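== Polypeptide entry ==
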Amino acid sequence: MTTESGTAGTLHSVTREVRIGAPPEVIWSFRVEPEKVVKWEAAIADLDPRPGGVMRLDMFGDGTVALGGYRDVQPYERLSFTWGWEGDDSHPPGATLVEITLSPDGDDTVVRLEHSQLPTDEAAARHAEGWEHYLERLTIAAPGGDPGPDPWAEGRQSS
């Protein structure tokens, strides 16, 4: 896994690559089907995975919401969507771009994720940590495992 970053005054990007023991069709479902997204990434997922459709993820069930829109939707191969945070003027909804490619490799799939247009080194570092955390959970969930409760959500859900 790698992190790429721009120089001062430029936008930054994060790149992650993982091998998952499941075919692209299964991994795709864990990115576009709300009932599967909540197993590894978000507490609540409202998804319309078509170009122009909205993606809204309440990450912890406490109103920490990632919001964006789908751009490129090529089932089982490629998915891109904008990403940002409700209520965050430094990184508002739709401000950055996430591109995911799925490449079959035998019984596995190589998942490559690039998150670009991040505004600062700090934002890139936070998102690098986040994608690492959630892709690790996906490597467990997609092959049929249970990643368990998200430790980042502990104590954050609203009553």
